[in-house]
Design a protein that fits this description.
two-stranded antiparallel ribbon; binds zinc ion
Length: 88
């Protein structure tokens, strides 16, 4: 019987801590540009065609240790073929 009470107490404390942690995080989320949703709306330039597009719509490519973003898969494929040609 004691174990059941102890378990219930631990569960209650864990619940309170989790609630506090979640709400504390939500309230302390900065609104000055470091918000993840805002970062997704940043416009980036396509290195292949030069067009600007929202970062979240970009097609990612890992290249030379960094991540490149393209406006479309066509541009990404053109960039890959162009770079593989210059390498030889
Ligand atoms: Zn493009």
């Amino acid at each position: 019987m004691f174990r059941l009470i102890a378990f219930a107490l631990i569960a209650y404390v864990a619940y309170r801590l989790a609630r506090k942690w979640i709400f504390g995080r939500t309230r302390s989320t900065p609104v000055n540009g470091t918000d993840p949703d805002r970062i997704d709306d940043v416009m980036v330039q396509d290195p292949q065609c030069g067009a600007y597009f929202p970062r979240r719509d970009g097609v990612a490519l890992r290249h030379a240790g960094g991540d490149l973003l393209f406006c479309s898969r066509d541009c990404r494929d053109r960039f890959i073929s162009a770079n593989s040609n210059t390498g030889k």
